[in-house]
Structures are given as C-alpha cells and as structure tokens.
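Lecture notes, unit on protein representations.

Consider one protein chain, 173 amino acids long.
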Amino acid sequence: MTLRPILIHPDPRLKKVATPVAEVTDEVRRLADDMLETMYDAPGIGLAAPQVGVADRLLVMDCVKDPEATPEPMVLINPEIVETSEETGVYEEGCLSIPEHYADVERPVAVTVKWLGLDGRTHSEHFDGLWATCVQHEIDHLNGKLFIDHLKPLRRQMITRKMVKFKREKARA
C-alpha cells in the first residue's frame, strides 16, 4: 500500500466529473487500498479517487471515529444515490482537499446508495447520520463538486482565496 498525495483546492482535477469504473481489477483494488491508507493517515472519514488525482468513480469511507471501536472501511465503486429522505439536516463538513476549513452544509439526513463492491457484485445500503453526510460529500467529489459549492458565493470565494494563499506558502516551504 502507498500513501497518495491529496490534491488541494483549487485544482481543476477536483472539478471534473469522474469516469465510471468498467470492471474491478487488481489495479482498482490497489487504488482502494492506497486510498484507505491515505484517508486513515490524513486523518479523514472519506476520500474520493479524484482527490488523489484519479478520475474514477470510486470512494472510500469509514465513519467510525472512536479509536476503541472496530474500523468499518467501505469501498464504493460507481456509487449512485437511489433514494433520499425528505428530511434534511445540517452538518459541519470539512474536506481533506480544503484543509482547516469547515462549514455547515444542509443535506438529506438519510440516503440509500447502490454501488459495485470489490467483489464485483452490486450492493445497496441505507445510510443515515454521519455516514449519510459522508457518502453524499464523497459522491459530490465524483461529480466535480466540493462542499464549498453548497455555500454562498462570498463565503466560497473567501475560502478559495485562503486556499490559493495556503498552496502558494506550501510551495515556498
């Protein structure tokens, strides 16, 4: 397994719609392993392939935050939201591609998602709470959308300017 560098906003690759994965290959399994290792190392609870510079519809997540609890890593290939709750909720979101910035985002509190697993079979699961927020956030990445795209334009521009400055300072270091 290899830690992969996480792209930082603004980066045009983060705004592109990812391509469906045609079949589950050893290369796809390696990517999933690398992404899980990268996500845990960051540390984060979700990571989409475009965030590591791969334009594939693949995401990993594990919303178990308690260090005493057993991790529940998930790999979702070509995930698709098939049902959303009418009820919405607000959750403070952050993103590994937008470090140290958080904002309240309103999303459905529950979703049903269908995806292809590493076993090559179709899976479906109902997610709620943090899991629902996370899977929607990561699917947004696959569609070229960041959590700041849910914010008012002024707030989005302010965060983007700070990220440009952050990247410039990081490049000088």
